[in-house]
Write a structure and sequence with these properties.
2 helices; 13-stranded antiparallel β-sheet; 188 residues; Porin; mainly beta
C-alpha cells in the first residue's frame, strides 16, 4: 500500500503538441495548451475544470497563464508567465542546452523556486521526456506516450506526471515541456 503523496497525473487528452487539454486524473488541476490563430504562439490556460466537461460548452474568455511566442519560421522566440508580470524571456536563454556538444533535446531551466531543472528526451526507458533536478538527477516529472501496440479505451494514454512536491511548478513544467516537444518536432 502506497502512503506517500499522490503524483499529479495529467492526461494529455489529444496527444497533439499544438492543441490539447491536460486534466489531472484526480480532478485537482486542469490546463489547456492551444495555438493562437493570429500569430505563431501558443498559450497555456488554467481551465478550472475537466476538458470533457467544458470543451464545447463554455465561451472561451480566459487569460493565458503562459505565452510561448515562436518566430514565423517556427524557431524559438520568447516565453512569458502571467505570474512574473508577462515579462518576455528569450526561449534560448530560458531553456539552455545542458552541454555545448550535446544535442538540443537535453535542456535546463531555472524554476521560479530558484532550482535548476533539466528536460531530457528518452533518457529513461518508457519515458518520452524526463525532468530531473539536482546532482542526483532526482525525477520530478515525466511525459509518457502511449505505446502504439497498447489499446486505450476512452483515454488518450499519453500522460504528464508531476510529483506532488513539485506541483507548484506545474505551469513551468508544462510550458517548458511544450517548448521541448516543439524543439524535437522542428529539429531545432
Amino acid at each position: 500500500m502506497y502512503n506517500g503523496p499522490l503524483p499529479y497525473i495529467f492526461e494529455d487528452r489529444t496527444g497533439q503538441l499544438y492543441a490539447s487539454d491536460f486534466d489531472d486524473m484526480y480532478d485537482r488541476l486542469f490546463y489547456r495548451v492551444t495555438r493562437d490563430p493570429q500569430r505563431p504562439s501558443m498559450m497555456v490556460y488554467d481551465m478550472g475544470r475537466r476538458a470533457s466537461r467544458h470543451r464545447d460548452s463554455l465561451p472561451f474568455s480566459r487569460r493565458p497563464i503562459a505565452i510561448l511566442e515562436f518566430k514565423p519560421d517556427q524557431s524559438l522566440g520568447s516565453i512569458c508567465y502571467a505570474s512574473n508580470g508577462n515579462v518576455a524571456v528569450p526561449m534560448n536563454r530560458y531553456l539552455r542546452r545542458t552541454s555545448m556538444f550535446g544535442g538540443s533535446l537535453s535542456r535546463k531551466f531555472m524554476g521560479s523556486d530558484g532550482r535548476e531543472y533539466r528536460w531530457s528526451h528518452r533518457s529513461i526507458q518508457g519515458q518520452e521526456w524526463t525532468c530531473t533536478t539536482g546532482t542526483e538527477n532526482f525525477v520530478v516529472a515525466h511525459f509518457d506516450l502511449k505505446p502504439a501496440d497498447v489499446p486505450a479505451y476512452d483515454v488518450s494514454g499519453n500522460t504528464l506526471t508531476i510529483f506532488e512536491q513539485f506541483i507548484h511548478l506545474s505551469v513551468e513544467m508544462l510550458a517548458s515541456l511544450t517548448i521541448m516537444r516543439h524543439i524535437a518536432q522542428h529539429n531545432l
